[in-house]
Amino acid sequence: MNILITGASRGIGLATAKHLVEKGHHVGLFATNTATLEQAITDKAFKKALKQKRVITGQLDVTQPDSWDTAISLMTDHFDGIDVLINNAGVLVSGALPTTDLDDQLALIDVNCKGVLIGCHKLAPYLADSKNGKIINMSSASAIYGQLDVATYSASKFFVRGLTEGLNIDYAKLGIKVIDVMPLWVKSDMTADIQVTSIDRLGINLTVNDVAKTIGKLTNRPNRKLKNTHYTVGMPAKVFQTLSQVTPDPLIRWVNTKISGK
User: I want to staple 149 with a disulfide (CB 3.0 to 4.6 A). Which of 21, 88, 103, 196 is the partner?
Assistant: First the structure.
């Protein structure tokens, strides 16, 4: 399969790219910082794939439609179509909203919401031509209930969740499966220096490889066997997701406050 990954220069995106090339797929790694991206593919995990011309890299600012057009053209020029979009690029800002920089918060919304939306819009015609076209959006367990310290980030993942649910229905007529992945906190560059109460209390128990393996399984699975819309990663996220479906809102808020409240 031919797979386009955004935010692929580090973290979950890079780990996913490594996992997929090792499985024999053709992968396009895209990021805003091409220097970091070029350094990333010097990893030995890409050695064989590079020789076989199964890996390409390119610059992509997910907030800019024209940048998506360029990335798509690069993919179609090098590979025979596009089968999977992994909407991974994301930004995290922590802290109480009034005390954080507004421009940073707005930039987060641009990347996490606008970027995902543009990707879903731009790739639809190409994925519809694939026999197993799918979009895998990177959501989060913070889209189960709004989170203290990362309210804007949490809200952006609610956007991703809602968009995924809507397109899961809407794109079915195109033969495209749209799903998302919802991990709890993941040990990565993104979470290295943030201060979040729920991390202090629950810790960070997932690695980027844990999430990459889940994404890899979903990528390889035939669309007809993808029965769910949301796929959690790790037992805590699975428990929270299950409880949210059967628990009254006041109780969910109380549990969430105990976990993430101060």
Answer: 196
104: tokens are: 């940073």
Tokens of 50: 């590079």
C-alpha distances (whole Å) from 214 to each of 32, 73, 180, 182, 210 are 25, 28, 11, 10, 7
Range of the domain at 32: 2-260
* Statement: residue 8 has pLDDT above 60: yes
Under 8 Å between Cβ of 139 and 182: yes
Handedness of CA 32, 34, 38, 39 (dihedral sign): negative
Residues in the chain: 262
d(C-alpha 205, C-alpha 218), whole Å: 21
pLDDT band at 235 (very low <50, low <70, confident <90, very high): low
Q: For residue 181, give the CATH number of its domain.
A: 3.40.50.720
- DSSP-derived secondary structure for 3-61: EEESSTTSHHHHHHHHHHHHTT-EEEEEES-HHHHHHHTTSGGGHHHHHTT-EEEEE--
Two tokens, residue 133: 């076209």
pLDDT of residue 87: 98
pTM: 0.86
How many structural domains comprise the chain? 1
